[in-house]
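Title: Prediction job returns without error message
Component: structure pipeline
Severity: low
Priority: P3
Assignee: unassigned

Description:
Job completed but the reporter wants confirmation the result is attached to the right record. Sequence as submitted:
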Amino acid sequence: MAQGTFQNLDFEQASIIPLGGFDTNQVEASAALPGWTVYIGGSSVNNVLYDTLTIGSPAVSIQDSLSPVVQPLQGSYSVALQNLTGGSVTAAIGQTGQLPQDAASITFYVANYQPLQVTFAGSSIPLVQLGTTANYSIYGGDIVTYAGRTGELLFTDMANNSQPIMLDNIQFSDQPIPEPGVLSLFALGGLLLSVHRRPNLLR
């Protein structure tokens, strides 16, 4: 499915351009995250961390396979949102674009999900967990009411979190998000199937 006018939703268009000077872990935000705006405390900034994590103030970083701290969730690059202090100073990335005309849902990969907030045009998108792997979970939200609209898609680390929120592979789909009850039935069905297949140890 087309992704509207949004771009670089999997962060694979990154170019790593050091800022120079004393801090070699700072790179140009516009090159590392083309199409995205980086926000610290609600104000846009021109730099992000590269292959490292903050030890204090909120920060956004781009991580690749050379990182000694955290690895990408998939592909060559993932983004880390870090907010160790909590409060009103948040770390976020946003991109303004037009959603596809037939958009029904948004999905993305995330590790250390809490306390991530996702909004479009200033409205919060309620999220549900759709799946999980060894390295990340898949979350999704209903955006059918915003289909075809232009606005800012914003991912924000809202509060004190000792682990970075890793984000990757954002996609729009024309398929709706399953209702929570349906997801619960799927989970129950999987549990019952595993119990049914378990050998009877009393035989």
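Comment from assignee: result matches the submitted record. The first helix runs from residue 29 to 32.
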